[in-house]
């Protein structure tokens, strides 16, 4: 049984291995997200034995996949590892979800929704757009006017400006939004849901909740949203590199604000635990529109100075130029829909920035006509 002092020393050893200040390592973060696996996990386990005298095996980082679980294991307080408790590995690590999704969630500092265009009460079509990792649905405020009969509503994360409290799952985030969405949708009208990047995951989970409740989702709009069945969560080291190089959330030469980086990091941790299951075929929207960018964040990774592992598919998805992407395995989650494909200018992080927002607006005008 390790003392609190030994646990703190252990985090110092781990922090040195993964090049992260131990004070910045949070209990809800996973070792996978932090980049501790394989040979590095083996070397770190050996260092913990030789430097502190802790008996840690490399696979203990898999048995106790989050920092909090691992600390409890070191203190001798851990029960059966969550990944082995029922003989199978679970995609979502973490405590059981409460019946009330708002239990323990602080009051949001910003409204949950922003009506960006039109009036939901009278518009022919109401489009709900969920945010990317920044959590700001107001980012869609740069869109040009989509149509006289189209209402655009951006959903804001409940954890904007308080990302330290964002430790819940993608599925629970959908539950935090569901009442807001239903409140704004005229009764009996089919839903149109969309989202950029992680926003596609939120839209998908909200579609599940709505259709389970007997509502109809008529259309989904996936905006450069890499399907979780095919793409990994973005590694922490890549987030750090992109932030350092000003490639993520930077506008007009200004670096991304700290609140955005914090919320993005919390989002990635939730995405790491997320593994979606298909929507029932009789509940799948008639149409799923995919909107992809073709540009990468850099023209040449080798010349960019970025120190990243290009064997990770989602890293390549962000950094490298692409061809015409299609369903990218979303068809497994949304079987039987009519899939349509459009392409816009810019890279993954420029989608709502001026000029590129005009390109997105043209596509949205077309797909909501």
Automatic annotation (TrEMBL):
InterPro entries: AB_hydrolase_fold, ACP-like_sf, PP-bd_ACP, Thioesterase. Residues 1-78 form the Carrier domain. Residues 77-110 are annotated as: Disordered. Residues 82-93 have a biased composition (Polar residues). SUPFAM superfamilies: ACP-like, alpha/beta-Hydrolases. Coiled coil: none annotated. This is Carrier domain-containing protein. It comes from Recurvomyces mirabilis.
């Amino acid at each position: 049984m390790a003392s609190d002092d030994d646990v703190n020393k252990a985090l110092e050893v781990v922090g040195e291995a993964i090049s992260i200040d131990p004070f910045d390592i949070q209990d809800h973060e996973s070792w996978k997200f932090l980049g501790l696996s394989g040979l590095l996990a083996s070397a770190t386990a050996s260092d913990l034995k030789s430097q502190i005298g802790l008996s840690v095996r490399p696979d203990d980082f898999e048995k106790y996949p989050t920092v909090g679980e691992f600390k409890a294991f070191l203190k001798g307080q851990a029960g059966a590892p969550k990944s082995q408790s029922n003989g199978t590995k679970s995609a979502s690590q973490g405590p059981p979800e409460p019946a009330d999704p708002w239990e323990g969630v602080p009051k949001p500092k910003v409204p949950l929704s922003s009506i960006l265009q039109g009036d939901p009460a009278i518009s022919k079509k109401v489009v709900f757009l969920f945010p990317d990792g920044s959590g700001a649905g107001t980012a869609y405020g740069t869109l040009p006017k989509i149509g006289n009969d189209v209402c655009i509503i951006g959903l804001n994360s409940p954890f904007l400006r308080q990302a330290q409290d964002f430790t819940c799952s993608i599925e629970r985030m959908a539950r935090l939004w569901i009442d807001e969405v239903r409140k704004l949708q005229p009764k009996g009208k089919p839903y149109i849901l969309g989202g950029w990047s992680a926003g596609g995951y939120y839209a998908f989970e909200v579609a599940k909740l709505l259709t389970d409740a007997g509502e109809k989702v008529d259309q989904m709009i996936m905006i450069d949203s890499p399907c979780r069945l095919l793409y990994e969560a973005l590694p922490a080291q890549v987030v750090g590199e992109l932030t350092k190089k000003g490639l993520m959330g930077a506008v007009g030469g200004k670096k991304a604000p700290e609140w955005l980086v914090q919320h993005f990091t919390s989002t990635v941790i939730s995405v790491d635990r997320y593994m979606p299951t298909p929507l029932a075929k009789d509940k799948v929207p008639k149409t799923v529109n995919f909107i992809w960018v073709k540009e990468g964040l850099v023209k040449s990774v080798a010349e960019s100075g970025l120190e990243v592992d290009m064997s990770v598919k989602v890293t390549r998805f962000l950094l490298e130029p692409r061809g015409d992407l299609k369903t990218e395995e979303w068809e497994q989650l949304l079987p039987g829909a009519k899939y349509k494909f459009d392409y816009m200018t810019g890279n993954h992080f420029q989608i709502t920035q001026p000029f590129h927002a005009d390109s997105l607006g043209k596509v949205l005008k077309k797909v909501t006509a």
